[in-house]
Write a structure and sequence with these properties.
The protein has 171 residues and is of the alpha/beta class. The chain has 3 helices and 8 strands; from the N terminus they run E-H-E-H-H-E-E-E-E-E-E. The protein is 19% helix and 30% strand. About 3% of the residues have low confidence.
Length: 171
Amino acid sequence: LRDLSRAPCLRSLEQQVLQEVRGSRLVRSLVARADSDPDVRGTLVLVHHPPYTNSSITSDELHVQRSFVPAFAAARKTLAMLSGHVHSYERYERGGKTFLVTGGGGGPRIRLETGPRQRHADDLFAGPEVRMFHYLLAALTPNGIEVEMKGLPKGEKRFETMDRFRLSWPT
């Protein structure tokens, strides 16, 4: 994060095969370059559509799972994949990698599926079905990136820390 011009934001909007192939190649290239750079301690991948979500409005984005997740998961220095699109907050950890859905900055919030309709029972944030407006704060530390999700509870005027976790630097 020292040089934000090297923080890639990947376009996940197109679902056409050609875009998937290009996206897959781009991700492989970017994370391989970061993995081989001794100055890079960790990599965050930002996409618009979430590969995994319990949204009641949209489903998992299979084109993101196919195009971006394999290279992200295989890379040594990737820490987290952050996505928006779904106006909610979800946090998953799979294969030692963090997947964040953080779309709670403005638009109408959506309900997340629960019970038998829930697609992913491994959401690490135990919030309500309709999550609060929120934003993320991140701080670089010697051990990794400390992340805080600040949420605005209904009827309140101040944001509060609702979730906190560390993205540890790879060893």
